[in-house]
Every structure is written in C-alpha cells, then in structure tokens.
Amino acid sequence: MADILQNVMDHAVAVARKAGEVVREALSDDRKVMTKSSAVDLVTQTDQKVEKLIIQSVKEKFPQHRFIGEESVAAGEPSILTDDPTWIIDPIDGTTNFVHAFPFVAISIGFTINKRVEVGVVYSCLEDKMFTARRGGGAFCNGEPLQVSDQTDVHRSIIATEFGSNRDPEVVDKIFSSLRNILSLPVHGVRGAGTAAVNLSLVASGCVEAYYEMGMHVWDIAAGSLLVLEAGGIVMDVDGGDADLMSRRILAANNRSVALRLVEQIAPYRPDRDDVKKISGKWW
Ligand SMILES: O=P(O)(O)O[C@H]1[C@H](O)[C@@H](O)[C@H](O)[C@@H](O)[C@@H]1O
Ligand SMILES: [Mg+2]
Q: Which domains does the chain possess?
C-alpha cells in the first residue's frame, strides 16, 4: 500500500509539472473562452487539453484506477466517488484567473481510496510552487514542511473565501451576509486567490487562518483539503459538521476555535451535491 501511494505521489507530481508547463505556455497565446458570453463559469481549450494529458498519462501507469475530472464531468462522465482508487483532477483551478492572466492558477490532483484522500498535489504553476501531502506524512511546498498558523484569535486572522460563479440573487445575498458578519467580527482581512486549491494551500502554509466556500466542486478541494489536514489544520462542513467531499461545502481552518467562530457567522446554503445529477430525467 505504501509503495502504491508513493508511486501515485511521484506520478501526480510529474504530471502536474508537465501540465503546468502547458498552462504557462498557453498563457501567452491560448486563453480563448469556449463558454457562451453571458456565462461566468469559464472553460478554455487549455482546460480540456490539460485534463486529457493528465488522464492519459495516469491511465498508462495505473490502468485500473478511476477518475473524476472537471472537464470529463462537464462532458457527461459520472461524478460518483466509490471505494476504488480514484484520481480527482482539476486541470486548471482558477480558469477565470487564467483567462485574465491573474497570477494564481493551479493544477489540483487528489487521490482517494475508500473515499478518503490519501495523496494531494496542488501545483500553483505561475508561482512554481508544488504543494504535496500524503495522509500521515505531512504537507510540503517545494519539499519544505508546511505548518498552519498558530493564531487562535479570529480577530487577528485573515479569512479566505470566494464569490463563486452562482449569480442567483438568493445565493449572492447569502455570500454577502457571511462576508458582512465576518468582516465586522472584526477580522484583520478577507482575501480570495480565485482558486480553491490555492486558498487551501494558503491555509496549509499559515498565510491565512481559514478558507470557506459553498458551490465549488470536489476537484477544487480534494487535494487541498489533505494539505490543510497534514499541515495540522482541520476541515469541516460550514455548519460545523463532518466534512463531506461531495457536498460542495467546505470550511478549512488552522484550528477548531477559529473554525467555530466562523461557523457562527456563515450564512449556509446547499448547492446540488457533486454526486447527485439529473441526466435524461433520471437521478444517479
Ligand atoms: O476555476 P475553476 O476550476 O472553475 O474553479 C473555481 C470556481 O470556478 C470558482 O467558482 C470557485 O469560487 C473557486 O473556488 C474554484 O476554485
Ligand atoms: Mg476548479
């Protein structure tokens, strides 16, 4: 088992680095948006190309493994997490950043067995930072160990979050209600990198105390959530319950006391789960 996980880690790092090269090259000449002009959840050809590259390369080495990938799911593949070894891939986390050349873009690769993340790799490719974690083995950035912040006072904290891509007025109201509550606690600041994977790596690195969001997907958070846990932090639901990878809700923090102060301030809502989709009139 340990050997398999080491092989998975090595392969994930190698393919994330290769993917990062493709993203960096595309930044100067291939950022055209494929989505219709009014859409805010953007997709580019580079997202699709990078996901293909990652999946092909993993399939050659680990033919029995399953995949959940952002672009494959968008193309109709199921997004069901089973007990089988599964690679959970976001080829470009921060596609909107990529399109605008806003400099935080990550390749996110999580690997689960029995529905639990065992390996997490987040490559913040414009910063050239390779974040890695193995369950029970610590979290690292470019080989240096990571540790969450030791701040216990939420008033001395920076909290990361995102506005997401849902423009439903009720959801926007909830987002602003949470923000207003948190800002007026008060806290030192609120930030957002535009990518869940990078936000989670910022928690793991001790640069922000917490990150919460509702509406992102499993491929945005699978790898980063292990980084936070292995750097000594905690991951839970935004209502303080157990974390659920497929729920599209996350609160990751340096410690329980900061997390629970945030739970009191967050106005929760429930996006449709990642593993419940209506296709041709049938739920699966
Ligand atoms: O760039 P993506 O892979 O689509 O992921 C983003 C998502 O689009 C955005 O809505 C969320 O707020 C971010 O946290 C995701 O990382
Ligand atoms: Mg993403």
A: 2-145 (3.30.540.10), 154-263 (3.40.190.80)
